[in-house]
Amino acid sequence: MPLPFAQRTSVEEVEEGSLLSPKFDSDGLMPVVTTDAQTGELLMHAYMNQTALMKTIETGEAHYYSRSRQTLWHKGATSGLVQYVQQLLIDDDQDCLWMRVTVAGSGASCHVGYRSCFYRQIPVGTEAVDSSSPIALTFTEAAKTFDPQQVYGDAPNPTQL
Amino acid sequence: MPLPFAQRTSVEEVEEGSLLSPKFDSDGLMPVVTTDAQTGELLMHAYMNQTALMKTIETGEAHYYSRSRQTLWHKGATSGLVQYVQQLLIDDDQDCLWMRVTVAGSGASCHVGYRSCFYRQIPVGTEAVDSSSPIALTFTEAAKTFDPQQVYGDAPNPTQL
């Protein structure tokens, strides 16, 4: 079945046109920004390939491509924390997606157990930097919303050093 | 001058620790999600290298690495649309940044002239897909906030086919 994507024939058509003509990178991926549809909070940043994008469009549930597991990833299949797509947008040059979602269950999206993957803050300003020691982060979420060990068991942690 | 970044010595330290130990990709870059600090709107998705991150932390104004121009990019240097960082966060595995900003001037962040780079919506649901024709986008911003020709003149358009 041919994909319902238009050819990228001109910059004007890509930027100002009304046809979906996505550009995937050399690995066949496109970054996706996922925010809470109600609060605007950034929940996660991940990637889609063509299949993940089509599955997301067809089902209304977020599908990604897992780079660590190298497979299609239906978010919530293991944890139950399915992301329901309220709005899906694409950027000017059509190489990045913005997905506004509501999350099932506890509402968490981060494998570490926090609501958002972005639970630590970097200080900003000249006084923040003292080159003799590493910059200190502060936590913005007081507690985890679930226990990753209970949810994922012994599944490998996607974080790589 | 040594960079004030900690070594990435363990997954636990990277995910649960309080030291900034960023991971840049094989091109020396890290994706950055930039949202409006007040509305939560996604303004743009771009990249930082080490220098851009340090400049952003030190000055409180958004600096990126321009992949199309292959240079450090002080956002707003040409257009006046400087982004003032209200909050800077990093994700669980420290390879992605979330920057909450207020924007100078007209408040726009997109080189095409729109407020956000994400001004077009992809329909979601089975009825959205008819494989015989490309998926149609709808515009979510009614009008441009500035005239790119007036602001950027004949500077090359960063969009690539």
From TrEMBL, chains A, B:
UniProt cross-references to Pfam families, sorted A to Z: PRA-CH (PF01502)
Protein name from the UniProt record: Histidine biosynthesis bifunctional protein HisIE
EC number per UniProt: 3.5.4.19, 3.6.1.31
Record-linked NCBIfam families: PRK00051.1
Catalytic reaction annotation: 1-(5-phospho-beta-D-ribosyl)-ATP + H2O = 1-(5-phospho-beta-D-ribosyl)-5'-AMP + diphosphate + H(+); 1-(5-phospho-beta-D-ribosyl)-5'-AMP + H2O = 1-(5-phospho-beta-D-ribosyl)-5-[(5-phospho-beta-D-ribosylamino)methylideneamino]imidazole-4-carboxamide
Family classification: In the C-terminal section; belongs to the PRA-PH family.
UniProt domain Phosphoribosyl-AMP cyclohydrolase: residue ranges: 44-119
The keyword Hydrolase appears for this protein: yes
GO MF annotation: an example: phosphoribosyl-ATP diphosphatase activity
This protein's pathway: Amino-acid biosynthesis; L-histidine biosynthesis; L-histidine from 5-phospho-alpha-D-ribose 1-diphosphate: step 3/9; Amino-acid biosynthesis; L-histidine biosynthesis; L-histidine from 5-phospho-alpha-D-ribose 1-diphosphate: step 2/9
GO biological process: L-histidine biosynthetic process
Alphabetical keyword list: Amino-acid biosynthesis, Histidine biosynthesis, Hydrolase
Gene3D superfamilies the UniProt entry points to: 4.10.80.70, Phosphoribosyl-AMP cyclohydrolase (3.10.20.810)
Organism from which the protein derives: Acaryochloris marina (strain MBIC 11017)
